[in-house]
From TrEMBL, chain A:
InterPro entries assigned to the protein according to its UniProt record, in alphabetical order: FAD-dep_OxRdtase, FAD/NAD-bd_sf, Rhodanese-like_dom, SoxB
E.C. designation(s): 1.5.3.24
Cofactor field: FAD; FMN
Family: Belongs to the SoxB family.
Catalysed reaction, written as an equation: sarcosine + O2 + H2O = formaldehyde + glycine + H2O2; sarcosine + (6S)-5,6,7,8-tetrahydrofolate + O2 = (6R)-5,10-methylene-5,6,7,8-tetrahydrofolate + glycine + H2O2
Protein name per the record: Sarcosine oxidase subunit beta
Organism: Chromohalobacter beijerinckii
Any matching Pfam family: DAO
Record localization: Cytoplasm
Main location: cytoplasm
NCBIfam families: soxB (TIGR01373)
PANTHER family listed in its UniProt record: FAD-DEPENDENT OXIDOREDUCTASE DOMAIN-CONTAINING PROTEIN 1, SARCOSINE DEHYDROGENASE-RELATED
Lineage per the UniProt record: Bacteria, Pseudomonadati, Pseudomonadota, Gammaproteobacteria, Oceanospirillales
Keywords: Cytoplasm, FAD, Flavoprotein, FMN, Nucleotide-binding, Oxidoreductase
Automatic annotation (TrEMBL), chain B:
NCBIfam families for the chain: soxD (TIGR01374)
Organism: Chromohalobacter beijerinckii
Transmembrane segments: none
Protein origin, superkingdom: Bacteria
Protein name in UniProt: Sarcosine oxidase subunit delta
Coiled coil: none
Extent of Polar residues compositional bias: 103-116
Alphabetical list of InterPro entries matching this protein: SoxD (IPR006279), SoxD_sf (IPR038561)
Amino acid sequence: MQRYSGFGLVKHALRHHEDWQRQWRNPTPKPRYDVIIVGGGGHGLATAYYLAKEHGITNVAVLEKGWLGGGNTARNTTIVRSNYLWDESAALYEHAMKHWEGLSQELNYNVMFSQRGVLNLGHTLQDMRDIQRRVNANRLNGIDGEVLDAEGVQSLVPIMDCSKRARYPVMGASWQPRAGVARHDAVAWGYARAADALGVDLLQNTEVTGFKIRDGQIQGVHTNRGDIESKTVGCVTAGNSSVLASMAGLNLPLESHPLQALVSEPLKPVLDTVVMSNHVHGYISQSDKGDLVIGAGIDGYNGYGQRGSYPTVEHTLQAIVEMFPIFSRVRMNRQWGGIVDTCPDACPILSKTKVKGLYFNCGWGTGGFKATPGSGHVFAASLAKGEMHPIAAPFSIDRFHSGALIDEHGAAGVAH
Amino acid sequence: MFHIYCPYCEELREEEEFHPKGQAHIARPEEPDACSDEEWGDYLFFRDNPRGIHHEMWLHAVGCRKFFNITRNTVSYEILETYKMGEQPTVGAEHLAREEKTSSVQAAEGGQQTVGASDAALASVKGAQA
Ligand SMILES: Cc1cc2nc3c(=O)[nH]c(=O)nc-3n(C[C@H](O)[C@H](O)[C@H](O)COP(=O)(O)OP(=O)(O)OC[C@H]3O[C@@H](n4cnc5c(N)ncnc54)[C@H](O)[C@@H]3O)c2cc1C
Ligand SMILES: [Zn+2]
């Protein structure tokens, strides 16, 4: 692998950028692998990377029906934070946060992780009580957090309407300074390049159409490019996980919903942090290019079309303009949707299944981008050892029968 | 934007008047106390999540405030029929086919089957779009 550096950039500039190495190979599928990962989003690619890097398992394939990172990884609003309420989820997302903090160096790829802080606004007394409880829980788990009043919020974000005139006045917020944003594409590409360098085969345009199962043990997958064998298969397919599960005769407690986002025309820098509001429901940050990155809520109906309803976009922009009257005449450039796999307790599923050797990593719903490195790390360990990693173990699918839910609905600010 | 035909109001109205309420035709177990954890968990949390035909409950929230059912394609978002509570769909979904395997349930591809509403309404329901 050709390493990237400032010096290398100068060298390549002198050669008119004509001899950059391809970031990854485009191999033909082998007949068998030690591990197959289905889904080439950030989570799948990270899993493959850590399998090779930390567990020495390099005979691994990532099967992606489209292009790498073209699913929700490429469609999200890139908010990264770890201020979740419950111990189990706090451990998982903080595990990811620790990886984020060294990720660009680890992958030799600039993922543009920017710890510009995240505000979760409170607009009612109950919001504020929940915020206090959550920040206290976070601190007990060693996660940074502060409770701010309206003045504190105003001094961080001068352009926001924190006055009493607002229809839903801002009463305060939780503030996680270590939170922030990262460049989604770079995360997928960085993991892909590093995994490829360790020998992982990244197979694009390769759609899994069925599973080979014998005596309750996974034997491999059927794909549009032929059958591929493996005794360990991890499905990391986000909004399509129910479809994959049904191919194996399994049912998951998931619903697939469209979730939309938009970006505006580029503006001069006006917003140097991330603002989220559960109550008026909108979240916003400004990218380094200057465009406002705005996220909506899910459409309430099930949907697999990567688009959503216009009223949802309209509501979101109402919320944004309510918080930031200054943006009322900003024009939106693009709008799109992804298919998110929502789980009843708003927590992911990292789990074995009734089929031996077949694992699922899904249910991240509207908020899994932030978990990408941590999810890949613990899922890889689970696949390598055949036992769920201690951080992943509480997220077993069994919880929907045992009742040991991890209810992050509403508990974790906005669910993104 | 969906245009949804409410079988009670017998009118085509805009999506914003309605709330989707998830999978339809889920019967509460007659005796919850007699359920195993498995059965109770399945009832509470596990849903069909098909890529294709889906029967779902909707609420005409700012209209007649009644619940009713929609059969919809979750990929094209086409609404194939709407029908009242207590009625059965005429366009089949996978789960009904699996559970009942009766001839009355048809597999639908293009949504050419008849729908529960009147013929006049049928034409407009077919024009429903996302
Ligand atoms: C609009 C929007 C905003 C969001 N905002 C945030 C946010 O601010 N912060 C945050 O933390 N999270 C956010 N999320 C959620 C986040 O994007 C996801 O949880 C996360 O990216 C999931 O990553 P993944 O790798 O599991 O899935 P994906 O990136 O979706 O990858 C799954 C891959 O599986 C492939 N696949 C599916 N079926 C098959 C098959 N049969 N065979 C082969 N391949 C298959 C797909 O093509 C896809 O590439 C947002 C999501 C959306 C849509
Ligand atoms: Zn009505």
